[in-house]
Specification:
Length: 147
């Protein structure tokens, strides 16, 4: 299995589409029930990743600072997990790594992207809330992400 990194321009992107294929037919993964829709590693602009859980806890500032130092020295070693639903990217892990990239002024972050449905998104949000003993709004409106 090969990993590919796609770097996107830091300019304002209104919409974009990404596809990858590991088979000989060149078909887009996830468009056929016979293909394996496994995760893909890509660089995404930070402003294209919605963080539906970001207001539920504060990050440890010491851990963020340590990550910033490490990222400056050797780059990000572990991509954050992102769920793509209908062309929208939702980040559920890597809060400290995401904040470190923001504070460093980096325009993109390496992501492990899995495709899912709105139901998958709801399930992940509810599971995270239950595991963390927190309450959250399931599927907040898009306006809440642009406050």
């Amino acid at each position: 299995m090969a990993n590919f990194v796609l770097r996107l321009p830091a300019t304002s992107l209104r919409s974009f589409s990404i596809s990858a294929s590991s088979n000989d037919s060149g078909a887009v993964p996830g468009t056929s029930t016979t293909q394996n829709g496994g995760p893909v590693i890509l660089e995404l602009p930070l402003d294209k990743i919605r963080r539906p859980l970001m207001r539920t806890r504060a990050n440890d500032p010491i851990k963020v600072k340590e990550l910033m130092d490490s990222i400056k020295e050797i780059g990000l070693q572990v991509p954050i997990d992102v769920l793509e639903v209908d062309g929208v990217y939702y980040g559920f892990s890597g809060c400290h790594r995401y904040e470190a990239h923001q504070r460093l002024g980096l325009p993109t972050i390496r992501c492990k992207i899995r495709r899912g449905t709105k139901e998958t998104l709801r399930t992940l949000q509810l599971k995270w809330a239950q595991d963390s003993n927190r309450t959250i709004n399931v599927l907040p409106s898009p306006a809440q992400y642009h406050e």
